[in-house]
Amino acid sequence: MTVVKLEQLQVTFGAKTAVSSASFAVNAGETFSLIGASGCGKSTLLRVLAGLQREWQGQVSLLDQSVTPGARFTGALRRNVQMVFQDPYASLHPNHTMYRTLAEPLQIHGKTQIEARVTTALQEVGLPADAVNRYPHQLSGGQRQRVAIARALLLRPKILLLDEPTSALDMSVQAEILNLLNRLKGEHGMTYLLVSHDADVIAHMSDRAAFMAGGEIRRFFDRRALLSGEHRMA
Ligand SMILES: Nc1ncnc2c1ncn2[C@@H]1O[C@H](COP(=O)(O)OP(=O)(O)OP(=O)(O)O)[C@@H](O)[C@H]1O
Ligand SMILES: [Mg+2]
What we know:
There is one protein chain. By secondary structure, the chain is of the alpha/beta class. It contains nine helices and ten strands. The chain has helices at 42-50, 75-80, 88-91, 98-108, 114-124, 141-153, 171-188, 199-205, 223-227; strands at 2-13, 16-27, 31-35, 57-62, 65-67, 81-84, 159-163, 191-195, 208-213, 216-221. The strands form two sheets. It has a six-stranded mixed sheet with strand order 6-7-8-3-9-10, sandwiched between helices. The protein is globular. The mean pLDDT is 95. Bound molecules: adenosine-5'-triphosphate (ATP) and magnesium ion. Magnesium ion is lined by residues 42-43, 163. Magnesium ion binds next to helix 1.
């Protein structure tokens, strides 16, 4: 089953074309990655899929629902597509405790048993229950990214968009977070779209990858090509 489908996606910022006629489809349960040099359009593409970049042209469908340019994501679509950003420090509110950070999305979506859900969310990402009382600056970088992942998973999304989720972390913490993401993907049956600069991360995580340059997709790599390291030469 296809859960993400792009046809001829184009995003322009004034005279600048950030993404140009990108087309691909991602199957349920896959980890599909975007690779390529800085500025080639990876984050812009992910932001379209997250509903954050609303000006674009082409065709986009998410979970068999076609998305229209300009439209705000609502309802199931908003719950089902979540994004984790590179810098957890910037994506967490500095003056909110972890309890508030995790409880608010649940309240907004009218969930009950908020405390129990927050506790479970922290457990799932390997954080102690007493982390609820802490502020972002009282956590390590890895712990902050765990909270950001816990928050993204609160509403049980089907698609997780990961934009350089570990590049702000040191090597050993990076491996822990990647393993955590792989475990959660299996447990919750999610589909991942991953952006990373790190060829090892790509090879470790991805079923397939698309190599972008100058806003275009130039090449696809399947699992075999990734295992043999062909993407390292791209
Ligand atoms: N809001 C914006 N306004 C104008 N130009 C933008 C905007 N967002 C991105 N761009 C431009 O679009 C191009 C693609 O940017 P994007 O952030 O998608 O690249 P990227 O592949 O994610 O790069 P990096 O690996 O450095 O994160 C760049 O030239 C960037 O300067
Ligand atoms: Mg980027």
